[in-house]
Amino acid sequence: xxxxxxxxxxxxxxxxxxxxxxxxxxxxxxxRALADSDGPMTAAELHRSLHSAIPLSSLxxxxxxxxxxxxxxxxxxxxxxxxxxxxxxLTGHHHHLICAGCGEVRDVAIPPETEHTITSLVGRVAGRAxxxxxxxxxxxEGTCPACLGG
Length: 150
What we know:
The protein is an alpha+beta fold. It folds into two domains: 1-92, Winged helix-like DNA-binding domain superfamily/Winged helix DNA-binding domain (Arc Repressor Mutant, subunit A), CATH 1.10.10.10; 93-150, 2-Layer Sandwich (Dna Ligase, domain 1), CATH 3.30.1490.190. Helices cover 45% and strands 15% of the residues. The chain has six helices and five strands. It has helices spanning 5-18, 25-36, 43-49, 56-68, 88-91, 112-128, and strands at 72-76, 82-86, 95-99, 105-108, 139-142. A three-stranded mixed beta sheet has the order 4-3-5, with no helix packed on it. A two-stranded antiparallel sheet has the order 1-2. Strand 3 and strand 4 (105-108) form a beta hairpin. Helix 1 (5-18) runs antiparallel to helix 2. The longest helix is centred in the last third of the chain and has 17 residues, at 112-128. It is globular and about 45 Å long. The protein starts with a helix and ends in an 8-residue tail after the last strand.
């Protein structure tokens, strides 16, 4: 069962404190905004969602600290734009739907039996290339309902 956003945010803050990283009000705001989001967010999207409560320069510094502390994960979308989300240990394994029209990125869970098939396939492909798999992610690109006019 998926954890409520508040629980994920509390776990992230506890992780910061256990690593002796200060849990400032700004960091807690960033963590909470990402815990409440439906998918990864750019720094600009976070800034807007926080109603500019944190200056953009401070937001970037806090994102770097939170990423280094292992609370956030930074991914790049198809256009190379950095997007941030809570680390997978907080959110659970998932993949992304990415709209080619508006750039929205939404988390999507795959049924366990399908995930097992994907994991097996990833292992075979990596094994043929001599790689040891440490994880995988799938970004499914397409057009969201809003961009389709629906």
